[in-house]
Amino acid sequence: MTLLLLAHFAAAAVAPGLAKLLNRRAFLVLALVPAAAFAWLLAQTGDVTAGRSIVEDIAWVPSLGMDFALRLGTLQWLLGLLVTGVGALALLYCAWYFKPDDPSLWRFTGVFTAFAGAMLGLVLADNLLALYIFWELTTVFSYTLIGHNPVRSANRRSATQALLVTTFGGLAMLIGTVIIGETSSYTISEMLASPPPAGALTTTAALLVLVGALTKSAQVPFHFWLPGAMAAPTPVSAYLHAASMVKAGIYLILLLEPIFADVPGWRPVLLVLGLWTMILGGWRALRQDDIKLLLAYGTVSQLGFMTVLAGVGTQAAGLAALALVLSHALFKSVLFFSVGIIDKGTGTRDLTQLHGLGRTAPVLATAATLSAASMAGLPPLVGFVAKESALTAVIESAHGPLSTTTGWLAVVGLVTGSVLTVAYSARFVWGAFATKGATGAAPSPTPFAAPHALLIAPVLLSLTTLASGFFGDPLTKLFHPYTETLPGAEPEHLALWHGLTPALGLTVVAIVAGLLLFVGRAPFARVQAALPEVVNAERVYQRFMKALDRFAVEVTALAQGGSLPTYLGAIFLVVILLPGVVAATALPGTEVRLWDTFSQAAVGLFVIAAAILAVRGRNRLQSVMFVGLTGYGLALLFHLHGAPDLALTQVLVETFSLVLFVLVLRMLPQDFRRRPRSGRRSRRRLWRLALAGTMGAAISILTVVAANARIHEPISKAFPEQAYDFGHGQNVVNVTLVDIRAWDTLGEISVLVAAATGIASLVFVRTQDVERSWTRRRNQGPVTASLPRERRSVILETATRLVFHVMIALSLYLLFSGHNQPGGGFAGGLVLGLALLVRYLAGGRAELDRAAPVSAGLVLGAGLVVAALSALAPLAFGGTVLQSAVVQFDVPVWGHVKLVTAMFFDIGVYLIVIGLALDVVRSLGAGVDKQAEEDGATA
């Protein structure tokens, strides 16, 4: 199972390249990945039927109880088949749906495949934290898929709306997940065996998790995001909003039903919101002329139906819920695929503009009609089997666990929703395929032309819909291991015929009433139009977001006045009044050792003197130089304290920062502005002096108190031994970064990449400048010197060309020797960054481009990919994430070589630092040069 997930994400990683190489045919290759997962899941049918669970458990963060645990049971098997099967067909469908020259294929292929992998991970996860991570991944990927066309405001608005609503639910779910995990267990199978203790905390946690499930599955009052998401391409709707993403909430409810069914509030919330959603969705579907929106509201209605069954919580209701999940995924995917074909073939989805497609596209019409009949609950389709089973379960629930009144109210609600379902199913078939004409004369059919290959997915799924209706008994056996975990009597098996039962009678009533409602659609539409909307959830959301934006503007105007001293003053005051005061109360009784040697004291006095001179300086460059001296003094203190690796890194960082300061100062006046003294200015000066002094004292006190607060032996004392035993290196600092604390480093380099992106966005405001730094640098023509002759220095240029290659060699030496000697990927990357900086100082931006004819984004991305792959590589050999190993071999002439695999992670760090340095030099150096030239030319 782990390999199947990795295969999805690996395919997503290479998908953009495949799309560039194969164009639309890349979808055919990518479809093989979910198809392989589908085949593997089918092969496990025997184990699932026998009630045996397949489990994989990989230690992730054992100290926090975080294991990457996967489990395949009945529920996971069913959802996994839908996710992979419909996913493979959706990718197949995409190969003929998109235009060959669609410029966004490279992005869409990767995100769609990654979503399929995240959805499969969500279904298989047996750890609540892992499930939550996959849950949020589906949210992020769906945001990108819905916003597929960022040029259209509808896509952007709908994607943001879906993201905000589902993220809100996800945050509530995270809180509930943590509460459950800390009071019981994070492992779902363990909770099934031993549920959390009853109490207010468990109730709160269960309802918070339920909020996440309800938002994901578009239940009232969160239902409005799903119709808005129809701005996405049709394959996205067919997959996300029929077979996968919207089923995630239903899956979570069904998964936790055996655990929380009796928690106060669980069942009432599901029943009330489910019935409300079912009826509201059906009501709104009958008002739509866009057949895709009609299906969207129909999906909302059907999700409400499933929620009601999950809320009943008996064995019969559980069986019906699984049957409905299966049937809905099949028929709704077909219908969305059909809408995509109609839209592509005619250019419209307006049912008032569609005429006679049943004659021009008979195969499509047959497949869609079968699926619509299944949605309406007509025999002999699987939708009929599921609906009759659902009605039977709810009728029985009136005798327990629901009260008689509640049970029969639920029955009335389901029948009402079913009447609406039949009506909008008939409306869909009539609107999409019927020949319309008031006079009886058949108008000419709507022109239609679409690739025949698009029919593969809907035809296969509609045949499955038809065949599944005859396999009620096998499906009952397959679903039995799940249903037996629920309370209540064992249900009747799924079948087309149970005799003359109340459920059959109610089904007939729903079908007849729904057809009559469709026949009387014109007067019913007038009734709908006459009735006022009491509450519009989407309008409430929009008003709330508008009020929130306005509140943010007001707060920003109040707190962000544009004064940097004000911002710093506020931060300093908070530090002084909160942690500073608390630390001051703990200061008595602390011990302070000022220095170990007089040389440390001398360096400390030097740093203090440089800091005072930096404050007193009137020239900006002079002050920056003194600030740099404080950094070099700190490096000297590191060296005197026995930390040459830290000293080396501090010197390199300080040197790079110092030069960048100088580059920025070119755009500022040479001297600080002198203002005539006055009483008010003197008071402000004294206030700033007092604030700065108090802040310095607070930081000093915090440092002393923190150093004295330790009550346990520091774990770092074991680092030297651990660095050599399992890190296989003698440089403790570097081994800590790439092995012992590699998770921290992975997070930090991700932040570095984000920071580089921010720098490019802030400095390169002009589009051409962004492309200059972050796109491929080719076809530049001959590179000429960009510095004016009067600014060039022959000595500097000659020295630079002599030193440049030496610095490159030094950076590589630091990279490869850093595991045992001072250095490492970070220090090596800084040296190479300084080398590029020297080339820029000597010859300007043209010289920099000649030295590094590559985009900063490419280097940053390559570094992050190398680091991530080296972190995941041990999994392929049975190890854990970021586990390192040592390989020893002999090379002729060279001799014995000892290679530690953590070096590859260090190479990723090395590339990221180089990319960051290149981006910073291009932005603060070359970018500022270009903007200055353009401003001068304009002036």
From TrEMBL:
Residues 605-670 form the MrpA C-terminal/MbhD domain. The chain crosses the membrane at residues 75-98, 105-123, 129-146, 158-180, 200-226, 266-286, 293-313, 319-342, 363-386, 406-430, 451-471, 495-519, 567-586, 598-616, 623-640, 646-665, 686-707, 749-767, 799-816, 822-842, 854-877, 897-921. The keyword Transmembrane applies. Residues 795-918 form the Na+/H+ antiporter MnhB subunit-related protein domain. Pfam families: MbhD, MbhE, MnhB, Proton_antipo_M. Residues 684-763 form the MrpA C-terminal/MbhE domain. InterPro entries: CPA3_Na-H_Antiporter_A (IPR050616), MnhB (IPR007182), MrpA_C/MbhD (IPR025383), MrpA_C/MbhE (IPR046806), ND/Mrp_TM (IPR001750), Nuo/plastoQ_OxRdtase_6_NuoJ (IPR042106). It is a multi-pass membrane protein. Keywords: Cell membrane, Membrane, Transmembrane, Transmembrane helix, Transport. It is found in: Cell membrane; Membrane. Residues 125-404 form the NADH:quinone oxidoreductase/Mrp antiporter transmembrane domain. One of its GO terms (cellular component) is plasma membrane. NCBIfam families: PRK12644.1 (NF009284). PANTHER family: NA(+)/H(+) ANTIPORTER SUBUNIT (PTHR43373), NA(+)_H(+) ANTIPORTER SUBUNIT A (PTHR43373:SF1). This is Multisubunit sodium/proton antiporter, MrpA subunit /multisubunit sodium/proton antiporter, MrpB subunit. It comes from Janibacter indicus.
